[in-house]
Structures are given as structure tokens and as C-alpha cells.
TrEMBL record, chain A:
Stated name of the protein: Uncharacterized protein
Taxonomic superkingdom: Bacteria
TrEMBL record, chain B:
Alphabetized PANTHER family for the sequence: TWO-COMPONENT RESPONSE REGULATOR (PTHR43228), TWO-COMPONENT RESPONSE REGULATOR ARR22 (PTHR43228:SF1)
Record domain Response regulatory: where: 7-123
Domain of life: Bacteria
Gene3D superfamilies per the UniProt record, alphabetical: 3.40.50.2300
Chain positions with 4-aspartylphosphate modification: D56
Official protein name in the record: Response regulator
Protein's UniProt keywords contain Phosphoprotein: yes
UniProt xrefs under CDD domains: REC
Keyword Phosphoprotein on entry: yes
TrEMBL record, chain C:
Residues modified to Phosphohistidine: H44
Record's keyword terms, sorted: Kinase, Phosphoprotein, Transferase, Two-component regulatory system
Name of the top EC class for this enzyme: transferase
Protein name: histidine kinase
Chain segments carrying region Disordered: 270-289
Catalysed reactions, as listed in the record: ATP + protein L-histidine = ADP + protein N-phospho-L-histidine
Every Histidine kinase domain range: 403-648
InterPro entries cross-referenced by the UniProt entry: Bact_Chemotaxis_CheA, CheA-like_dim, CheA-like_homodim_sf, CheW-like_dom_sf, CheW-lke_dom, HATPase_C_sf, HATPase_dom, His_kinase_dom
Organism for this UniProt entry: Paractinoplanes ferrugineus
Domain HPt: 1-101
Keyword Phosphoprotein attributed: yes
Top-level lineage group: Bacteria
Amino acid sequence: MPLELGEGTATLIGVVTVDEVEELAGWLRATTRPKVNLRRCNHLHTGAFQALLLFRPKVSAAPTDSFLAERVLPLLARQGSEPP
Amino acid sequence: MTETQPKVLVVDDAATVRMYHSTLLTEAGFEIHEAANGLEAVEAALGTAFDLFVVDVNMPKMNGYTCVETLRSETVGTPAPVIMISTEDRPGDADRAYAAGANLYLVKPVVPARLVRISRMLTGRGVAA
Amino acid sequence: MNPLLAQFLAEAADLLTQVDEGLLQLERTPGDPELVNEVFRAAHTFKGSSGLFDFPELTKLTHAAEDLLDAVRAGELPLDSGMTDDLLATFDLIRGWLAYVTTEERLPSTAGADAASLIVRLRAPIGGEVVREAPTLSGPQAGDVAPAWLAYFDEEWLAETAAWLRTTSSQMRFIRYAPDSGCFFRAEDPLHLIRQVPALDRLNVIEPVEWPEAADYDEYACLVAFVCATRAGMGEIQYLFRYVVDQFELVDLDGDAIQRYLSGEIEIEVEPESGTAEKQDQKPSSSTDPALLADARAVLAASLKALALNPTNTCHLISLAKAITYAAHAFGDPVEIQEPDVVTLTATVTRLLGDTAEAVEDPVRTVVPLVAADEAPAAERRADDPGGQVGSRILKVDQEKVDHLMELVGELNVAKNGLTFLAGAAEEEFGSRALARRIKDQYSGLHRIAEELQASVMDIRMLPLSVAFSRFPRLVRDLSRRLGKNIELVLEGEDTMADKDVIEALADPLVHLVRNSLDHGIETSDERLASGKPTTARITLTAVADGDAVIVEIADDGRGVDPARVRRKAYEKGLISEEELETLSDVDAVDLVFRPGFSTAEQISDLSGRGVGMDAVRASVEKLGGTVTMRSELGIGTSTRLRLPLSMAVTQVMVVSVAGQRFGIPVDLVVETVRVPVDEMNRVLHQDVVVLRGEVIPVLDLARALDMPWIPDDNRDRAILIANVGGQRVGLLVEQFHREVDVILKPMEGLLAYADEFSGTALLGDGLVLLVLNMKEVLGLAARVG
């Protein structure tokens, strides 16, 4: 199961596909001060990524997947969009 | 809209280039046939009415110019547009292509989107009416 | 690996072989125009395909080789052996690169440096370096103008990158990927696509200017866009993004372009927009796609040229009418052409071009910035251009698939053999002879099918010996040059077929034998002259089929083996006794060279003297179930003959057991099985022997040799298997004989890999693993145990 939705923390595991996007977005929408654990996440569907970008949960554990860690995490960590 | 797929004959001796062009055009909705030299192309054209030819210049057995000439000759007599694609461009090559009967002479590598665009245009597809 | 690259690597392997073979043949028949053309063709095709990838060094190097070959083809200069060396070195280097590409999907970082000196050498005979870059896919956009969306990259990084790109005169690809909002419904995952971009250097997300309220947020609408920077090739990127061409934009920028952007030299017409629903078009354009307009214009301009150059062919005119009509349609200016004659068409095109365009561009030049037009030798290509063998009706199958099929056949055989066990059980355990017979009937039906299946799979695996021979022209050529000997290599019977495993296994022994001939067998030219021989020596490699075996012979007309010297040497090394020194026949003496520890070479040369002797050759051939023999005549020459099974996939073994453990012995070695009453066993000099038809045969106890707990029962006859090992008869005392079975022999692996007394393992029908004995080693063990 790619999504483990807890009280305040969602754990994303393996490949998060488009099928998980709705559930994740719903959880983010409903949770106050959500946290996500990405350690065991291998890929984030763009829809999931976009939801994280919008709701900006705190990332409680960084992914080990190198693409997510090096390329995607910095985008999530960034404060706001910065079009020049 | 149910259209029959335009039939394109991709002629190139380099298998990789053939695959490249074929993949692009197949994905763009063309029905692709392949030939590895001019002779095979002429043979194929005798059996099938193609809507477009994409022909390499430098090939063994029968080169692109002779191939296109033969396609336009009475032997085959195809009025379908011909795009010739050459690996290198030497002075006079374009003229030879047009004299042989090509409709457009391009130099490799052709940007994929452009090949698709031109192929669509020359088969009367994809041109927004 | 993407399928395009895989295709290229497969094609490249074929082309490189063609080039190599052609070059070597050319040395023998210099100037043969067909050969030159063939080699040129292969190199040309190779370059054409390589241009699809971002391997600039590869394309450059091939281009240099191709230019040299082109000059040879045009008769401008003859191909000398120095040039051949350079060309061979070039394609060797390329072969090495491709091996690297196979695993790494990029060229080794040393490629540029490695290629540079070769390019200089290749270009030297044709007037030195030509500044003429082969176009690669990056051609059209190389030196593109920086787009406004560069603003989404970190400025500091851009500045650094610009400086670096300028220093190294290289470029970087920048992508803007604005997926449309419905893309998730088409199963597209933009982030997944970006993940696949090779050599990704930077990634940034473009968020919508305004996010919707959380309550209104539609998680299935894609609202974000991406920009990234990569060192991947244009071809790779375009291939990757081929499904979303309408959603992405790609530019190839050099340092200058980025610098100009940074210093604000370019006017930015469009502010970076939020990449939501908008399409990619940032260029100022009329209502229609500007690219399409440009293409339409190119077609019209081309039509004008074609009309001038070929105004009479009716088919051509009709095709031009079509093209013109379609192009006009693209302009939104439809025309109707009633009469496709030159005058009407020319008038139509001229009007359309006048109406639509700024300056009419040369259709070619709009596509690709033209390569510097240097004096090109007349492009006289004949219609009957001979060359390449493309298009043969051969299905290329991945070797692994055939191997897998063979494994399945093996398993089928094993399963099939299981039926005979079942039949035995039906009769013995359940007492049903009728059932046993029915099972046996089923077995024979299955057996027939399995045999046919096996035969056809084996047939697929059959390769001509030319595969094993193909490396020798090159090897002999290189070595003979190094040794300063003149050698002609003759290949015969290359069409003889054998199983691919046999052919592969043959490679090393053959190389060793040929090197040996070159090194020790063949005299120097002076020596040959002195002994009245032609200065050019000859090495002949012959293959012939012989029943279910293939015989490969390596013969040379060199100095031959001196039996007297061999005898003396063997004696000095303690390999033979003083008595043998006197009595050993010349034929037997020559065979001494296969003894471990024997080497006739006075000094070890750098060629064959790598510690691998003829004994290793014999060992490896025997491991394949083959034999090696050597015949030699002093002063006349030597010939070494390898006899190998045509196929080694299936081995027939005789199953025996001792201490309850079963072992296999290759049936080829088994002479007979006998049961000898205990009192007929004899002992001679601490050695058990049995006398069969007047012949005294030593008998070895397998249990003792393998250190297994088994003492023969004195009340039962001794079961002795008589085997022929290395021309000698030996008896092997075992507990019990079983049947003969067909097995697929697998090499020993893991812990057992060092157990030399076994040549392999096989799976039996009842699921047990059978160890197949390496009889030679077993005899050695038995002798040591004594």
C-alpha cells in the first residue's frame, strides 16, 4: 500500500501513482499541520507532487530515492514560487 | 472521425535511422512500411499505393536519386509526395533530388516534430482547416 | 536502455564486422573498387545512425574515417597498410566505446582525447584537418536564442554554466515542459518523464500564478509546469518526449546565448507565464503555428525548384500539385489546381510565396545550418551501387532466448526421462505391467517429439565456423607484422556448422594454436629462404564435419617439431624415463608437447608464452569432450587437429552408483561393463587388475578415489566399468550399473567449481542431481590414493 495515512503523518511508500492522488489530496485537505514521510517513497506522481506543493506539509523524513531527494525535495522545501 | 491511416514508405539503409523515422511516424498515426534500399523501395511501391515516401540519399543497391526517378517513371508512376533526407549536404545534391522527382529535400537530422509536421502536411492531415 | 540505442548497438556490431573484414580483404586485393565501396558504405551507414545520438566524438571520428575511405573510393589515393592500421585502430576504438555505451549509455570521458590523435592521422593523407562538423540532431537549434523562461533558473548557476560552456565550447539543452491540464487522464506523469531525462542538471517547477482555494482544488488537473537543464543529446530528449511534443519546448544553448540572456541583450517579448492551461507558443506568431508556416514555405520553395529542374514528368507534376495544394491549405489560402502543368503550378507557387512570406528561404537552409560547403568530389553514385547486405530475410534472435529454449528442451528431456522411472515404479511397486507398458508407449511418443524439438533448437544454435575463424585474419596480420614474418592465412570449410557453445569454446584453444604456429612454427623469412622455402609462410585453418563431430585443423608449413629434441627435453624435465628416451616413437614423441610442464620454446616470447601451454589446450578441448592430436614433420610443418562434438548441449551418460550415490560417466568413454567373480580379480604390484580377453586392465576403486565409505561385498561379483581414457583401458570398480540417460551438462558452480574430479552436473528425471565424472582426474586421484 503506497499510502499510510495516520493522524498527522502520511507515509508514502514505493511508487505513488495517480490512483493515490485523490486520497492523498483529501487527507492533506482535511489535516491540520500535516506531515509526510517520504523515506521509502520511490516515485511521486506529478499529481501527488502538485498536491504536496499546494498544501505544503512538513516533510518529516527525506526520501532515499536519489531523484526525489536531489531534484524534487528541494522544490517542495522552497518557500513559495519565485517567478522573477 | 475514421480516416484510414496514410501509408508511408521509409527508405533507409541504416536500420537505426529507419527505426527512428518509423517510430516517430507510427506514433504520429501513419502506417509505416520500410525498405532498406532503393530496390526494395521500388518493389514495395509496385505492390502498394503509398501516400508518402521518406527516402535516404546514399544507399546500397539503388541509391535515393535512382529510386525516386524510378518511382516517378512509367514503371511505377507514383504521384505521391517524396521527401528525400540526406546525411550530408553537398552542393548540387538538392538539385539532383528535385530533378529526380522529390518534393522536398532535407538534411539529416530532421527534428522529429518537423518530420511529423511535414509528413502530415504532405498527406493532407493535421492541417487545421 | 531505450530501444533506439539498443537497435543502434546491434546494427553497429554488424557494420563494424563488415568494415573489419573489408579492410583486411582490401590489403590482399588492394584497390578492389567493390571492396572499397563496401567498406565505405558500412562506415557511412554507421555515421548516419550515430548522428541520432549525442555522441559527438563518435560521429566526428567516423566522419574522418569515412572521408578517408571516400578519397580512396574516388581513386584519389591508394590505401596503404599504414592507413589500414589507422582505420582498424579507429574501428577498434569505436568498438571499445560501444562496449562502454552498452553498459553506461554514454561515451567514456576519455573519448575526445582518444579520438583526437586518430582523427589527425586519418585526415593527414587527405590534406589534414577539415573544419567540417558532421551535423548532429542538435544542428538545427545549436546556438539557439535563449528563451525568456530561462528566468526560472537560478541566475548564479546560469552565469557559472555560461562560463563553463564558453570555456569548453559546449552546449546544454534546456527544456520547458508545460503539460496540459488534462494530461493525468491520458496516463501521463510528467515527473516520471523528467525522471528519465539522462544527465539532468537542474530542475525547477513553475507553479500557477494563483493556486485555487483548497476546497476548489481539482487534484486531477495538472497545474504545474517544469523547466530543466540537461546534458543529454537532442535526439535522446526528443525521443523521450515524443508523446508530448506539443507540450514541451527544447533549446540548445551555448555559453554565449546564456550570457547574452543574462546581460539582457535579448529583448524578452513575453513574460514568463504561469504554465497552467496555456500552450507552449511563446514566439510571436500569427494565428497559425509558425513552424507549420515555415514548413509550408519550405515546401513551396522546393516546389519552385523542382518545377525548374524537372518540368516534364507527369507523376512528378501531380505530386507537386498535391504538395502545393496542401501547403496553401496550411497558409489558410486554399488553392485549386485544375491543370497540373508547369506554367500553372509555377504561377500558383510564385503567388503564394509572394503573398505569404518575408524573404523566401532556401528550404534546406531553413532546416539545418549548412555545413561549410567544401569542394566535394563529384557525387557520382551509380545506380547499381554494390554493397551492403541489408534486407536479407533473417530473423535475428537474442541469444538468451535461444539459450532459454534450449534449457526448456533440456528440462523436457529430463521430465521425459522421468516417465521411464515411473514405468519402472508401475511395474515394480504396483505390479502393473500393463500400466508400465502404456507409460512406455507415451514415453516413446514424447521422446520422438522431444528429439525433433531438440534437433530444431540445436539447428538454430548452429553457427558456421567462420564465426570462430573471423578473428584470425586480423590476429595473423597483426602478429606477423610484429614478428616480421610474412604469413598467408588460408581458411577452409568456414561454412561447416557447429553448436555455438562449441564454437565459443573453440576460440581460446584456436587462438593459442595459431599463435603457437606463428611464434614457434613459422621461421623467419631469412631462415625460410635458407632452407629453400618460399618466404611467405602459410597457415591453414580447416574445418570439416565428420559425423557428429567437427574437425578443425591448424596446419603450418614451418619448421616442424624435432622429435629428438622433444625427447631430450622431456627427459631433462623428468617427463619420460631413460628407457622411453630410447624407445619412444617419433609420433609419440611429438605428443609429448601436450604434457604439462613441457615447453619447447627456448625463450618465452610475448606472444604465446603466457604460461599457457599446449597442455592447457589439450585440457580445455578434452573438457569439451574432444581430442587434440599433433602431427609434425621436421622441416616441413606441423598440423594440429582438434576433434570436437558438433554439439555439447546434450551428453549421454552412463549412470553408476557407489555407496548409494549416483555418478555419470560420458558414454563416449565407456567401452563395456562387466561383472567379474571375486576370485577372478587379480592383484599385480599392489594394483587390482582384471584380465579380459587376454588383456590386463588395471581396476580402480571409485569409492576409494572419491573417499566414499563403501567396501565391496565379497559374496557378489564385482561390477566393473571398462573405460577408455586417453587411449588406455581402465576398469572402474562401482557398486551398481544403472541406465544410460541424456542429460544437459551444466558446468560446476559455486563450492563445487574447484572439484576437478567432476566435469559438471545434470538433473535427473527423478529430480536428483547427477555428478558427472571427469575420468582423467578421477584416475589421477585413484593413483594418488593408491
